[in-house]
Specification:
mainly alpha, Non-ribosomal Peptide Synthetase Peptidyl Carrier Protein, Chain A, 4 helices, about 55% helix, globular, ACP-like_sf, Acyl carrier protein
Length: about 80
């Protein structure tokens, strides 16, 4: 499975959205992306990519697009 497929899968499973909704998807676009959903997603990403994100990056992770940028800091390429 590609990194993009893993990344998308985490969003789809955590927030119960479709893949078509991901471009432009951001924090609180759906009720599922609240603070609890956010931390669930972060934990899933850390497990999937074997990383540990800094607190500032967790806070800044505000959209599907922003997340791809943040993961690059941890050498995770989402193409």
């Amino acid at each position: 499975m590609s990194n993009l497929a893993k990344y998308n899968s985490i969003f789809i499973e955590t927030f119960e959205v479709t893949e078509e909704m991901l471009p432009g998807y951001k924090y609180q676009d759906t009720p599922a992306w609240d603070s609890v959903g956010h931390m669930t997603m972060i934990a899933a990403l850390e497990d999937a990519f074997d990383i540990m994100m800094d607190t500032d990056d967790i806070i800044d992770f505000s959209s599907w697009e922003k997340g791809k940028e943040i993961l690059q800091k941890y050498d995770v390429e989402i193409a």
